[in-house]
Amino acid sequence: MKKIEAIIRKIKFEEVKDALLEADIEWFSYYEVRGVGKSRQERIYRGVIYDTSFIERILISIVVREINVEKTVKAILSAASTEEVGDGRIFISTVDEAISIRTGERGDTTLYKNK
User: Which domain holds residue 95?
Assistant: First the structure.
């Protein structure tokens, strides 16, 4: 099993969600997060200076079987890309075990019964 975490632009969330559903990835968690990127600038609006170095993003967290890793990554890449700086990152790490709280079942069958 692999855990895929993607940090994406907020405006791309609906497109990424739809792309994941099309790829049969029906369950994931997401969080609104803030980060600091390479870009440092201030914007002035009505005479008030706003620091824009804190970037609002969405963090998507998905645990998938090995056979679903590539299609999940492709779905995120195709939907999240604007081809501009700041599109985000995808991180993939190994998950050693999954346990269903309700049944106590272990392994990758706890993820999706039919996939």
Answer: 2-30+59-110
List the one residue out of 26, 33, 25 whose CA is nearest residue 9. Answer: 33
C-alpha–C-alpha distance, residues 87 and 9, integer Å: 6
Task: Please report, for residues 8, 30, 35, 40, 64, the alpha-carbon distance to residue 14 in angstroms, rounded to integers and kept in the order given.
Answer: 11, 12, 20, 27, 20
pTM, entire model: 0.82
Domain CATH code at residue 94 = 3.30.70.120
- Give the count of domains, the chain: 1
Is 45 part of a structural domain of the chain? no
What does the alpha-carbon distance between residue 40 and residue 95 come to, in Å, rounded to a whole number?
Answer: 35
pLDDT tens per residue, range 89-106: 999 999 999 999 999 999
